[in-house]
Amino acid sequence: MKDDKGIMGANKEDEPLFETKIARGGAAHKLFSFTIIIGLVLIWTYRLILIPTTSRRHSWFNGILFFADVLLGFYWIITQSGRCRVVYRYPFKDRLITRYKEKLPKVDIFVCTADPILEPPSMVMSTVLSVMSYNYPTEKISVYLSDDGGSELTFYALLEASKFSKSWIPFTKKYNVEPRSPEVYFSHQNTHMDNESSFAHDWTNVKELYEDMKSRIDSVEAKGCIPGEIVDQHKGFSEWNSKVTKHDHQSIVQILAHNSDPKAVDIEGNRLPTLVYLSREKKPGWPHNFKAGAMNALLRVSEKISNAPIILNVDCDMYANDPDVIQDALCFFLDEKKGQQISYVQYPQQYNNLVKNDIYANVNLPINEVCVPIIYLTMPSLSYI
Ligand SMILES: O=c1ccn([C@@H]2O[C@H](COP(=O)(O)OP(=O)(O)O[C@H]3O[C@H](CO)[C@@H](O)[C@H](O)[C@H]3O)[C@@H](O)[C@H]2O)c(=O)[nH]1
Ligand SMILES: [Mn+2]
Known about the structure:
With 385 residues, the protein is an alpha/beta fold. The protein has 12 helices and 10 strands.
């Protein structure tokens, strides 16, 4: 008998957490590219050698054409850099879970919003609820909403979302529903369930709670201010007064749930993720640096509250269409051999609600469906609502 890595097979602890495979057909693509490069060089040579000398106007015009050909060829060559050696990466979540169990790291999730009119709070809450319900130990997740709109409407919406999360999170995990954005989930599954199963019962119940929450948020938004009886429900509203505007206000930080608080539990008694509202200080004349500025403020605030080693960032108009997003990313960060070289994992984005003609080509067919199709099957992606 040899050692563990011999006859007995590879030591489980040594197995990598992700695998990189080179796509097939690389040689054929290189050959194809090479023939195009030859074509390009021939066109350039043709232009250079056969510059018409009959008139100055002709040679000037031909010079411009030569320049255009060189530019187009150059751009084409640059695009080849991403296609000549396509690799696919496959994370092994099961190995991650069995190896790390209780030792899985804490994760801070940053959601940025900037304007309650352009980015309606009910939409932002679906994003927040989708990230709160990832398949990951809830006591290790902290969700921070950065509100550059400095709006009490967004704060109110987050308060509503924190109450609804007590039903939404256990529902998603019990039935493994996908996607975890309640707005997208219920708009895909909008038929009435009339059977007697416990799923149908829970589904109807949670859908009703969701619709109620959404209509409360939307009606407060339509009014443009928070009714007095709601203001009395939470001391956080005292941060707002008539002087607070989007561009001029003090820092506002409100912790709506903390996962070390034994009272912060869902309807089944499981710990809730930490949930924090942040609206960083703004003063007229001081550059706030948009999303980058918001991320800096989020780093400083989260450092004091949860200080997780891993940070996940989403825009407020996104949702994760795969609840295992965190586990997938951790396979790259925690891989014993290669993890130290990785500081950043980016998921592909897909766009929803596009107009039929997609005049700005947002659906990005060449990249999403031709160049990296397998990544879509194996990697989670963040989607725009
Ligand atoms: O002062 C600001 C301005 C924007 N945002 C947020 O930043 C995000 C992105 O802004 P958006 O205007 O929606 O830009 P998009 O073009 O939709 O987003 C793409 O482009 C951005 C800037 O290039 C990147 O930051 C995003 O991640 C990327 O998805 C949104 O959540 C905003 O709420 C702020 O937090 N503060
Ligand atoms: Mn956006």
